[in-house]
Design brief:
InterPro entries: HLH_DNA-bd_sf, Spo0E-like, Spo0E-like_sf
Protein name: Spo0E like sporulation regulatory protein
Number of strands: 0
Structural class: mainly alpha
GO biological process, one term: regulation of sporulation
GO molecular function: protein dimerization activity
Distance between the termini: 29 Å
Radius of gyration: 13 Å
Organism: Sporomusa malonica
């Protein structure tokens, strides 16, 4: 099982990749690659929150 520190590292890597993609796509948040990376990052964050004993908020 992945511990919280490993999940945090995975989140940071995904966040950095998302930031780079947004720059490469000139801020086009609707770009397919950007959207896919954003969804992936969201899923990592939800998994982290659940593993940390927190319920993700419903927005």
């Amino acid at each position: 099982m992945i511990n919280l520190a490993e999940k945090e590292r995975e989140i940071e890597i995904a966040r950095a990749r998302l930031h780079l993609l947004v720059e490469q796509k000139n801020g086009d948040f609707s770009n397919k690659d950007v959207a896919e990376q954003s969804i992936y990052l969201d899923k990592l964050i939800v998994a982290y929150e659940l593993a940390n004993g927190r319920r993700p908020s419903k927005n």
